[in-house]
Amino acid sequence: MSRIAKVGKAGATIGATMGVLAAGAAVGLAAERYMVGRSLKKADPRIDGPWRGESYDVNEEVVVAPDGVRLITETMGDPLAKKVVIFAHGYALDRRSWWYQWRDLPAHLGPETRLVRYDQRGHGESEYEPVDSINALGEDLHAVLTQYASEEVYLVGHSMGGMSILALARKYPELFGKVIKGVVMVSSTSGESSQSRLGTPILDLPLVSNYAPQILDFLADRSELVERGMRAGKDIAFVMTKRYSFDSQVDPRLVEFVSEMIRDTSIEVIADFFPLFQEFDAFEALRVIKKVPIEFFCGLSDRLTPPGHTTTMGEQIPEARVHLLPKTGHLLMLERPDQVSEAIVRLVRDEA
């Protein structure tokens, strides 16, 4: 059978499968959409969370990546602080995903520890130029680190942010132990990402996942139509975000907050990055980061980067602390913020 015929047959099969799935899910989604409205109405207005915005003072700045892309950063704390914590967010999110850590850590670490978070290229407010591997995100992180480096630097990465740390370690191993004194990786991987969906729930369907790059390229070519559809289908997006990001009963406004970050990420960026995850392999970088104290986190219900990724990394670094949390999904730093914040405090205070 010719390649064209195979692609056509695959397209027809996927189309038929999606039609059956859509029909079968229609009643359930209708019910869940009804529950979305009820959930948001019942949300306790007294509870603080990222949906309220940010009331603390931050400095917004720009870091220029090696290829000229302008990365937007925020800092909090003394610019002359001897200790700096840098936060790298995950795929289809932005720097606001560290909201709880930014709210809570100043009280524990004081102004003498500076906090830095940035939007990865193509995410949040940062500019975008396509890249051909995750290694470029390591270079972006290196640019951020160079601008804010101090005597001690601690790196915190979620999902793709953890991959950025490993890409940095592979290219600049001399920094670990000398400048970088500790690492926290949340819901991340050192490779073998073909086993995970990394933020693309629809690709969790086995048949569809076989053609994921082609599907995403197809959607990217119709980005305006796709993005209009994403915004029109906010209730469905809410349901999918809840299923694939959390496993406990979180505040519905937190789910909507995450849905907003995902909607704000262009389909072009989502399509461009997806094949890079499948090609990512930084297993050897684990030998570099083991020079410093490290803590790994993963939710036992994480369907996007399953716990096996974290246990594999932990097996390679026996000295590391590995935390596998029950009833927790992929967005662990939002679902279990205290555990992540406590790990950062341990590292910075040299209690690990």
UniProtKB/TrEMBL annotation:
SUPFAM superfamilies linked: alpha/beta-Hydrolases
Pfam families found in the cross-reference section: Abhydrolase_6
Gene3D superfamilies: alpha/beta hydrolase
Any one cellular-component term (Gene Ontology): membrane
Domain AB hydrolase-1 residues, every copy: 85-343
Protein name: Unannotated protein
